[in-house]
Amino acid sequence: MRYISTRGQTPHLGFSDAVATGLAPDGGLFLPETLPQFTSADLARFAPLGYADLCFEFLRRFATDIPEAELHALIRESYTRFTHPEIAPLKQLGDNLFVLELFHGPTLAFKDFALQLLGNLYERQCRVRGEKINVLGATSGDTGAAAIHGLLGKPGTAIFILYPDGRVSPLQERQMACTGAANVFALAVDGSFDDAQAALKELFGDQEFRTRHRLSAVNSINLARILAQCVYYLWAWLRLPEKIGAEAEFVVPTGNFGNVLAGWLLRQMGVPLRGFRVATNQNDILWRLFTTGDYRVSSVAPSLAPSMDIQVASNFERFLYYSVGRDPAKVRAIMEEFKATGGHRFADFKRDIFTASRCADAEIPGIMQKIHRAHGYVCDPHTACGFKDLATARPSVVLATASPAKFPDTIKSAIGVEPTDPSLEALKSRPLDKHKIPATPAAIRAFIEAHSV
Ligand SMILES: *Cc1c(COP(=O)(O)O)cnc(C)c1O
To answer: Considering 111, 154, 388, 406, which one is annotated as catalytic?
Structure first.
């Protein structure tokens, strides 16, 4: 299988190179040249498989440059640190209401599904090519923690994660800064997330520095992240009663559109998922797109569901590529217009497949209370956005993207119960190993010079 860029000006790459490259050099995002099709016979064969074996059956169609036995072992290893035996348990709350819990990985958010795997792919790359790799990223919380736990202690790698000092939750900070691993550097930046992001962009723009330290970016546009996320949709669909599987809408708490895109791609591969609900918080660029056809940036208002606080949805470009008939010239034109004017209006959007909802911040506690009262279920603030305005006539599968234990204060004030998790409790007694650093490219550069592998 080969991988193309949505902007059509990058030579085709194999799987491992596309994963190692991240963002395509022409500014586009990588996609498979063709999508494999799963037949009903394939799906019947998949039904009895455990999570890691299902993931292997899926990814072997894509990671064709990794020997199968090696790929299988790498995938098995990637899901050993999940604490639930089913990895992604599907729970039924009512006749027509299901929750797919995606928060049983090491950092208690769905990003572990992709980043545990990506960490192992990076490690393999280092081993096979005899190279070292320094991973660099900026985070407002969940991505940094999941990336760190994907690379924890892996030989040949170091990971540097910048975050705004005092502006991630104390538990998220502890997940990044209390690992005790010598290859992990949690950098508390004196500034905002945007300052950290801007400094990072400048460092990645310096080709000499980037090449000398073999810097790799960790962000939500990596091809491996999207493919790893397709698997839990397939897993859930295989577990739904037949009649419900054909009717169910997957409700996805959405920020950068990576998670919804994964489900939609799986549908393009012949798995008969009925459709998707794009559930945003008050930062609602995607809700506006799917209700009006207008895709337009606005400012970000910090919310109780911070991992969905985005201004533009970086993975949207992959969907756009298919929407314009896989024409890279059209993608380039729309992305240029978007960059220049901050928006683009689409004449026609696939309303039959996508619905959308928007959850204002003030509504989140009330939704948590309602779900707790009706079903005895405690959900985190991101998942709460998914429970907004559910159709009762149609079955829904709400993707639970984070554990309630990550957001104890919001939940305690909403429902009076403080959720806990043993892994987070253990963190509270460990020493905090963070490096305070100014948000300047010079300071970050000096730190990497001193600590890179
Ligand atoms: C990252 C994240 C999201 C948003 O996912 P996207 O792939 O960016 O749409 C939602 N919920 C939680 C808890 C997250 O960490």
So the answer is: 111
| Domain presence at residue 245 | yes
Nearest CA to ligand 1 atom 1: 307
Number of domains forming the structure of the chain? 1
Which ligand 1 atom is nearest residue 254's CA?
A: 9
- Which tens digits make up the pLDDT trace of 367-389? 999 999 999 999 999 999 999 98
- Structural domain includes residue 193: no
pLDDT digits (tens, 9 = 90+) for 389-405: 887 789 999 999 999 99
Strands 343-345 and 294-296, sheet pairing: antiparallel
Q: Which domain holds residue 369?
A: 88-106+224-420
Determine if residue 325 is left, alpha or beta; phi over 0 gives left, psi from -120 to 50 gives alpha, anything else beta. left
The rounded distance, in Å, linking the Cα atoms of 101 and 117 is 18
402 part of a folded domain:
yes
CA–CA dist 418, 410 (Å, integer): 9
Q: Given pLDDT bands bounded at 50, 70 and 90, which one contains residue 3?
A: very high
Provide the CATH number for the domain around residue 344.
3.40.50.1100
Residue 32 falls within a domain, yes or no?
Answer: no
Q: What confidence score (pLDDT) does residue 86 get? A: 98
Distance separating alpha carbons of residues 317 and 331, to the nearest angstrom: 8
Query: Which atom of ligand 1 lies closest to the CA of 380?
Result: 13
pLDDT at 352 over 80: no
pLDDT score of 350 more than 70: no
Distance 401 CA to ligand 1 centre (A): 7
